UniProtKB/TrEMBL annotation:
InterPro entries: DUF2207, YciQ-like_C
TM stretches of this protein: 249-272, 425-443, 449-466
One Pfam family this sequence matches: DUF2207
Domain DUF2207: 47-221
Domain Predicted membrane protein YciQ-like C-terminal as annotated: residue spans: 297-529
Name of this protein: DUF2207 domain-containing protein
Top-level taxon: Bacteria
Signal peptide feature range: 1-32
Keywords: Membrane, Signal, Transmembrane, Transmembrane helix
Length: 579
């Protein structure tokens, strides 16, 4: 009988089991408030109650049970901005935040961190264990028309830097909720939450989620009848590279205005500082006949070919130095000897110094002659092969070019050295370009008006480029150049004056006299035609007084010889004509 359960014993057993269950329940609930094994802080429970009102603004009461481990503060992070499109963000606005005074918690501050708004809460003492914080605030922008309904959608819980054990959200509305849904995990997660439903009147949506990792969110969704709140989403322009450089009335007007202002300013500077004092073309006709007048070996208007080359393009080019070498030979300061290719196996020339006083040499001509006939070790030499000049001559070339720039200023053709003027404008343009780039970058990071900064970049680049045209000739320099334009036309025609056309030796003399200028103007082949048959007509015309060819060479070969010589000279003294 003892093994048979009587009704009374069975009743006592059920009571004992029930008592045990009741005893286990509180213990289990209490265990939820126990920190994890590592003793880290965590959110024990986060309960959010939303009541949706007019215009889609919700009144929110949030109760947070937080487990402290010696800290006196915490941060509640709200998602207040989500990317909607390339140019727009959807915005949720948090306002009227208050903290319940219970347990000594106060609002310590508010800040924006990327797409989130951070509310800082602190206590006057270090805390341990579970403590409850109550927040009240308004949130707007969470309701938007969708599929014939009004849809409430918002990441109501989440963003905690610690683990969250349990979350619950309730949404109360003045109308029947048509549907509910929720998602847990990353902000764009489509994984459903633990549980969601509506109450028996369908006016409240309930959403539960168990365990959320740091940084995860609980997004709640509720479908309301159309017109329930009249709420509309809030959109703000998204600041990206596309919007930073967007074209609108402001940026287009600013860009155009700055371009006009900067371009106009540069034009005024050019008119005041960079334009030649006199118009060259107007004087060109006057100089058409003057350059070929005169006798002897004095060049037209007493101007040297190197000076003309610098005056024409405002640059002391290598070709101007080459023309000066030919001019020094024509004037008797050196002799050019073409070597016999059949003997040496290559085309080369020897430059031989002639004993003639240098009283009539200009400064740059004297520097050039000394550079040619000074060995790399500093000792003088009587001759040098063209092929020996090579790279060592480049440093001397820089001195010659600098002296040529100084000479045109000394002649009164320029108020300032052209190379210095170009450098100053180019540097100013580059500085303005760099400032424009920096300004554009700053505007791109902070505003949508970065397009306006492009105007400064364009102006700086234009100034750097336009600086090449800023050297300005004086009235005297413009007049000299006008005469040279007429002289160049004469050389391009390649016509010998009638007085010398039938006199081969005079023809050769005139050819030699003007050849350095033909080098500068780039018309050597055409001008060389004037001496093509002189070797046959002139007695003992197998050489020029300043140019000697190899055996079996005569003036019929000179046109090709001088063409190759000028090219070889430019290549020998420098690797680039533009140096």
């Amino acid at each position: 009988m003892s093994g048979i359960a009587t009704p009374g014993r069975l009743r006592k057993t059920l009571v004992a089991v029930l008592a045990g269950v009741l005893a286990v329940g509180p213990a289990a609930s209490a265990s939820a408030a126990v920190p994890n094994a590592s003793g880290e802080q965590r959110v024990v429970k986060d309960e959010v109650a939303l009541t949706v009102g007019a215009h889609g603004t919700a009144k929110v009461r949030e109760t947070i049970t937080y487990w402290f481990t010696g800290s006196d503060r915490l941060e509640r992070r709200f998602v207040t901005r989500q990317h909607h499109s390339v140019t727009q963000d959807r915005v949720y606005r948090i306002a009227n935040v208050t903290v319940g005074a219970a347990d000594g918690f106060t609002l310590a501050g508010r800040s924006r961190d990327g797409d989130s708004t951070v509310i800082r809460i602190r206590n006057g003492r270090k805390l341990t264990g579970a403590h409850t914080i109550t927040l009240q605030y308004d949130v707007s922008g969470i309701v938007a028309p969708a599929g014939g309904l009004e849809e409430l959608r918002w990441p109501a819980v989440g963003g905690w830097p610690v683990r969250l054990d349990e979350a619950r959200v309730t949404v109360d509305a003045d109308a029947m909720i048509r549907n509910v849904n929720c998602f847990a995990g990353p902000i764009e997660s489509v994984i459903g939450c633990t549980q969601y439903y509506t109450n028996h009147t369908h006016t409240q949506g309930v959403y539960d989620q168990q365990t959320m990792l740091p940084g995860e969110h609980l997004t709640v969704v509720a479908g309301l009848p159309p017109g329930t709140t009249g709420g509309k989403p809030i959109y703000e322009r998204r600041h990206t590279a596309a919007t930073a450089f967007s074209v609108n009335a402001v940026t287009a007007g600013a860009l155009l205005g700055l371009l006009v202002l900067l371009a106009g300013g540069f034009l005024v500077l050019y008119l005041l500082r960079g334009r030649d004092v006199r118009v060259v073309g107007k004087k060109a006709a006057e100089g058409d006949q003057a350059p070929v007048a005169g006798a002897g070996f004095e060049p037209p208007d007493g101007v040297r070919p190197g000076q003309i080359g610098t005056l024409i393009d405002e640059q002391a080019d290598v070709i101007d130095v080459t023309a000066t070498i030919v001019d020094l030979a024509v004037r008797g300061y050196l002799l050019i000897e073409e070597e016999d290719r059949a003997v040496t196996g290559r085309t080369d020339w020897a430059l031989r110094r002639l004993d003639r006083p240098d009283d009539e040499l200009l400064t740059y001509e004297r520097i050039l002659r000394d550079a040619l006939f000074t060995a790399p070790d500093g000792t003088p030499r009587e001759s040098v092969k063209l092929s020996e000049l090579g790279g060592a001559f480049a440093t001397q070339l820089a001195r010659v070019r600098s002296a040529m720039y100084a000479d045109v200023v000394e002649q009164g053709w320029f108020a300032r050295r052209p190379d210095t003027t170009r450098s100053r404008w180019t540097v100013a343009g580059l500085v303005l370009t760099v400032l424009g780039i920096a300004g554009t970058a700053a505007l791109a990071f902070t505003t949508d008006f970065a397009l306006a900064g492009l105007a400064v970049i364009i102006a700086g680049a234009a100034m750097a480029y336009g600086g090449q045209y800023m050297p300005a000739k004086t009235a005297q320099g413009s007049t000299v150049l006008a005469h040279m334009i007429g002289f160049r036309a004469f050389l391009e025609r390649g016509e010998i004056p009638a007085s010398t056309a039938d006199a081969p030796r005079q023809r050769i003399a005139l050819f030699s006299r003007f050849l350095p200028y033909a080098v500068v103007f780039g018309v050597v082949p055409r001008w060389a035609e004037t001496v093509k048959d002189a070797g046959e007509q002139a007695e003992r015309a197998d050489n020029l007084y300043w140019y000697e060819g190899p055996a079996e060479w005569d003036l019929t070969n000179f046109a090709e010889s001088v063409r190759v010589f000028t090219l070889a000279t430019s290549g020998s003294i420098s690797q680039s004509r533009g140096l």
